[in-house]
């Protein structure tokens, strides 16, 4: 159970409704009963089934594609290849470099070659397998370091972006110098529900797509361009999203569906297999990092030098944005007078990389925190104390030259986890519980188990970066005592639909609030990432609700000769400051329908310049985690005992929901630290299933103690709240690695931590 010392939040009995209460999700019951409709549950009259043929090679030239055998099969209604794409042949959220179907070159294992529609899913899969493709197999480029000199894998070249950051004096040096080489593996979003969708042709020659999109308007526009249709002839309806920790629905699944529906004139459904899901969607960028830290004799940082290389896989996707975050946060939430960082993102023939929670920031956090442990060890200083001497605060300057204007209570967070009581050691008695690393039936001996305590501090940016125009639109409509929120912000599990209800309840005093289903007939709200819907879409809902509030109160204020500011709405009642006026919201509505539409757009940012300088971020969030681990130093097995978390949240809007988000983020980070790595061999994905890709289960999840939530509101955010779920994902892998170092004396320079890296050095 979470522990919280902050008064008025998690430990408090929830009120009936409104901000600051633990309002349950409206769809919680349906989800627990299994009646909530996801994309894989959808059905339509005359339904056809789709299957996609994918390349078995990571790099090959396509000599020929023969679809005749598939077309001749009974029950097959259509086969489409690159030649059948009527519009744009390529797509991409940031760079349109990814083909709908490979036509001349295959650039990664699992790339789509063709798609089939048939009257039965088995027929569709058999027909896809019957398509004869002749390949000229080429040597894959799988080492990102070799991509610089390798032959171009794409017409745009192998280098996607290079960011050289220059801050301070390049000749500055410190008395203490530590170096390190670090590698971060390929973490998969691993959605519990694999990608699925339904495409339905429209009478006007367009098509409707029903998918679990997290950015419906962008996905609609990409699909329309490939269909050769104007956007208004393509409608995307968001179905239930079975969890999202990145770009939930890759357009590569949606576009073939729409093409098949347009070709056949029938509804077409696709439900990806787990293998297809692993091969098709984007993963966290595998990263190579080289670091050199300079510090003075007291351990205060003087200069940080770093080289960061992101493996983007075959296509660009969000690699430019991920690289900007990695370079900007390469020094962590520490004061660094001088910083020189080189960052690159390159194409390879590995699986595609893209947006996953904390992209860029997670990889560098693991590296800079390892460097901080090295400095502490070299000076013989407590690792927490070494960090405390260097933490940043509000008013400090990032290596990008941007001033930290938002609350940055990093010292307070670190103090909270450092001072929180450590968990008790297990009793070495026959009756006592002694869970060896590896589980209750672990093969090791209790005498070989060592306990380690480690620390990590992390930071992430909120909203888009480098000039992204963040804007969201929302409408609030009230009639017959019921409010409806219309906003195209997709709730990916972040709880936005619950937050929208709370905002309206808080502003208008109306209990019954519904959030309309999301589709592209509504104005855009942008992608569900970086906490933007809490900030931007929540801000739009609040503004619209306040406009409705003014419409509601103005007639009463005019009647009683006072301004609306002198009236308040509490628990469904409208009262004046002097008690003269007292009525209910329902009575004041008097059968009228009130509605208003509003937008929210945060202050603009700017791209990083040629020296990596610029005000690139709207806001920042911080986290401190102390990890306690038990390590079998003979077998290298690791058990995470406890994670103590202190987080900068700005304001708690829904205590129970916030605790859930933090716990989920920490658990995802533990997976990245110990088990999650989509392994490849010369570009071929090995074991693309949940047998070969090990997710942490409830037995692997540690005790997660939320020891402090700092509620220092960010004044530029509509509610003062900050992004909550990405920052524990960023911080927890570094904390686990730090604890394993403390237990074993080993450097631990790779994530996930392999057993051989957790075997203690002699006499440690």
In short:
Helices cover 24% and strands 26% of the residues. The chain is α+β, with helices and mostly antiparallel strands and 764 residues long.
Question: What do these coordinates show?
Answer:
- It is a single chain.
- By secondary structure, this protein is an alpha+beta fold.
- Helices cover 24% and strands 26% of the residues.
- It is built from 15 helices and 31 strands.
- The strands form eight sheets. A seven-stranded mixed β-sheet has the order 3-7-1-14-11-12-13. It has a six-stranded mixed β-sheet with strand order 9-17-16-15-10-31. Strands 18-26-27-30 form a four-stranded mixed β-sheet, sandwiched between helices.
- Strand 19 (472-479) and strand 20 form a beta hairpin.
- The protein is globular.
- Residues 1-15 and 429-433 have low confidence and may be disordered.
Task: Provide tags for this entry.
seven-stranded mixed beta sheet, 15 helices, 764 residues, disordered N terminus, alpha+beta, globular
SSE arrangement:
Elements (H helix, E strand, L loop, with lengths): L27 H6 L14 E7 L5 E7 L1 H5 L3 E5 L9 E2 L6 E2 L5 E2 L5 E7 L2 H10 L1 E6 L21 E9 L8 E9 L11 E6 L5 E5 L4 H12 L6 E5 L12 H14 L3 E4 L2 H7 L6 E9 L5 E11 L7 H10 L9 E9 L14 H19 L3 H6 L21 H10 L29 E17 L6 E8 L2 E6 L8 H13 L4 E3 L16 H28 L7 E4 L2 E4 L5 E3 H5 L3 E8 L16 E16 L5 E11 L6 H20 L5 E2 L2 E2 L17 E8 L15 H19 L5 E2 L13
Parallel strand pairs: 1-14, 10-31, 12-13, 16-17, 20-21, 27-30
Antiparallel strand pairs: 1-7, 2-6, 2-8, 3-7, 4-5, 9-17, 10-15, 11-12, 11-14, 15-16, 18-26, 19-20, 19-25, 22-23, 23-24, 26-27, 28-29
Helix pairs in contact: 4-5, 7-8, 8-15, 11-12, 14-15
């Amino acid at each position: 159970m979470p522990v919280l010392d902050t008064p008025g939040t998690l430990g408090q009995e929830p009120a009936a409704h409104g901000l600051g209460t633990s309002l349950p999700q409206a769809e919680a019951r349906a989800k627990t009963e299994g009646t909530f409709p996801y994309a894989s549950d959808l059905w339509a009259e005359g339904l056809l089934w789709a299957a996609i043929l994918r390349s078995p090679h990571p790099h090959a030239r396509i000599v020929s594609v023969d679809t005749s055998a598939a077309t001749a099969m009974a029950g097959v209604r259509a086969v489409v290849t690159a030649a059948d794409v009527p519009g744009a042949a390529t797509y991409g959220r940031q760079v349109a470099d990814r083909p709908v179907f490979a036509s001349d070159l295959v650039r990664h294992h699992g790339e789509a070659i063709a798609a089939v529609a048939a009257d039965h899913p088995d027929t569709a899969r058999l027909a896809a397998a019957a398509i004869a493709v002749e390949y000229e197999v080429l040597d894959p480029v799988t080492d990102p370091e070799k991509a610089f000199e390798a032959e171009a894998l794409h017409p745009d070249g192998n280098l996607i972006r290079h960011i050289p950051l220059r801050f301070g004096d390049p000749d500055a040096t410190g008395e203490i110098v530590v170096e390190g080489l670090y590698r971060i593996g390929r973490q998969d979003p691993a959605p519990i529900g694999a990608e699925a969708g339904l495409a339905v042709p429209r009478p006007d020659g367009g098509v409707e797509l029903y998918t679990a999109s997290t950015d419906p308007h962008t996905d609609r526009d990409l699909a329309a361009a490939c269909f050769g249709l104007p956007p208004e002839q393509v409608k995307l309806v968001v179905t239930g999203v079975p969890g999202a920790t990145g770009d939930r629905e890759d357009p590569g699944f949606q576009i073939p569906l729409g093409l098949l529906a347009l070709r056949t004139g029938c509804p077409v459904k696709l439900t990806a297999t787990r293998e297809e899901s692993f091969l098709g969607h984007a993963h966290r960028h595998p990263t190579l990092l080289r670091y050199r830290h300079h510090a003075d004799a007291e351990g205060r940082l003087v200069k940080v030098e770093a080289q960061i290389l992101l493996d983007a896989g075959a296509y660009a996707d969000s690699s430019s944005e991920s690289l900007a975050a990695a370079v900007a946060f390469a020094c962590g939430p520490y004061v660094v007078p001088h910083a020189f960082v080189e960052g690159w993102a390159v194409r390879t023939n590995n699986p595609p990389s893209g947006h996953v929670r904390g992209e860029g920031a997670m990889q560098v956090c693991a590296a800079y925190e390892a460097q901080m442990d090295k400095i502490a060890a070299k000076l013989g200083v407590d690792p927490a104390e070494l960090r405390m001497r260097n933490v940043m605060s509000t008013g400090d300057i990032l290596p990008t030259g941007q001033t930290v204007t938002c609350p940055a209570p990093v010292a307070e967070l670190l103090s909270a986890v450092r001072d929180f009581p450590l968990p008790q050691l297990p009793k070495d008695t026959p009756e006592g519980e002694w869970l060896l690393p590896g589980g209750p039936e672990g093969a090791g001996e209790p005498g070989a188990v060592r306990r380690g305590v480690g620390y990590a501090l992390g930071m992430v940016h909120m909203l888009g970066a480098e000039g992204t125009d963040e804007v969201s639109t929302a409408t609030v409509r009230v009639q017959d005592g019921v409010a409806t929120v219309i906003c195209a912000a997709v709730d990916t599990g972040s709880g936005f639909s619950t937050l929208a209800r709370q905002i309206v309840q808080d502003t208008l005093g109306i209990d019954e609030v519904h959030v309309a289903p999301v589709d592209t007939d509504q104005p855009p709200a942008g992608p569900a990432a970086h906490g933007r819907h809490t900030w931007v879409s929540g801000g739009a809902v609040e503004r619209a609700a306040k406009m409705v509030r003014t419409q509601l109160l103005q007639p009463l204020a005019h009647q009683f000769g006072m301004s609306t500011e002198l009236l308040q709405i509490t628990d469904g009642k409208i009262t004046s400051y002097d008690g003269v006026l007292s009525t209910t919201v329902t009575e004041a509505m008097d059968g009228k329908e009130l509605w208003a539409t509003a937008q929210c757009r945060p202050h603009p940012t700017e791209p990083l310049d040629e020296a990596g300088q610029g005000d690139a971020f709207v806001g920042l969030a911080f986290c401190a985690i102390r990890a306690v681990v038990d390590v079998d130093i003979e077998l290298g097995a690791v058990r995470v005992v406890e994670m103590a978390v202190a987080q900068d949240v700005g304001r708690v809007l829904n205590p129970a929901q916030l605790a859930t988000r933090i716990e989920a983020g920490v658990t995802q980070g533990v997976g990245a630290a110990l088990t999650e790595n989509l392994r490849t061999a010369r570009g071929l994905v090995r074991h693309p299933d949940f047998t070969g890709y090990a997710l942490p289960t409830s037995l692997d999840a540690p005790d997660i103690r939320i020891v402090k939530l700092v509620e220092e509101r960010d004044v530029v955010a509509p509610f003062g709240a900050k992004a909550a779920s990405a920052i524990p994902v960023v911080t927890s892998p570094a904390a686990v690695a730090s604890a394993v170092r403390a237990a074993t004396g080993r450097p631990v320079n790779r994530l996930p931590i392999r057993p051989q890296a957790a075997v203690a050095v002699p006499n440690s």
